[in-house]
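Sat 14:20. Reprocessing the chain from the morning session after the first attempt stalled halfway. Input below, unchanged.
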Amino acid sequence: MNPTPETNPSSAPFGPQEERSHSLVLISGLVTTALTLLGIYVLDANTDFHIMGLYANYILPVGAILVGVAAASGYGLASWFSGVKITRSLLWLVLVFQLAAYFAAQYIEFNSRRLVHLRDGSPVGFIEYFDATARAFAWKQNDGSRGNPMEAWGYAFRGLEILGFAAGGLIVPLALRKKPYCQACQRYMRTRQLGLAPASVPVKKVKKSDAAGLAAYEAEQQQAFDRGKQTVETLQQHAAGAKTADFQKMLAELSLDKKQTAKLSKRFSLQLVHCKRCYAGQFVVKQLVGQGKQLKQTDFSHTELHSEFARSLCQ
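Finished this time. Tokens:
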């Protein structure tokens, strides 16, 4: 292997409609899981490439994670397109099905081999097979030869493989669980970027020995942040009061310096989160600090919007 809320008058936890909706998500996920595992089986049977055996730095089971994401993609796709919200109970079901799918795949592989003991021809049991394959885990050497079996330590890597497959399957459902959701329309809300507001001044080089210069620069940065905060508060007032013209005028003024603002170390991201059916929504502001891989994003404020105001911003 290469290191390569809702009330229900009945006592049941879900109503019939919700049960049918959940069934759609679960069936879709099981279909993609079956197709993915079929692909893995065909790949293993016809090539020397074992994607489940890909590890990064000998510890991160990237292959199992990728296969888990692909296998569970149906849960996320069905949830997104049908509008069925990923609930905690549904998330647990996905996890259980992922684990079951992993062992089902192992059993299918075991059954296809029809292994028998050489000494008496008796069939090999699945537990015995699973134990033997775990203990036989070994890294491929640089020269292509197989390293020494890890014996009991092989269970550690088999555990990482199982964990990676299950965790990979939860990535998309967990991401959807965090998405804004319109309970009235039972659909996920969309996020639209409206613009950026500056919250700092361009970076300047100031010598550490220049105490006065550093103090002046820090004061300048604080003033810029205060101005940005004031801009956001004014936009919030316009949004809460449904003053569309004033709100859009400010956005237009901010867009003139959009490129420069995007280069600042601190800026505010202005977003419209809305339902495409009823136009319920929020004016969301996030504070962005840094650039690239060092970018940090935190929630700054949320303002509830009148549906007609949200609709006007979408036109």
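Residues 1-19 have pLDDT under 50 and may be disordered.
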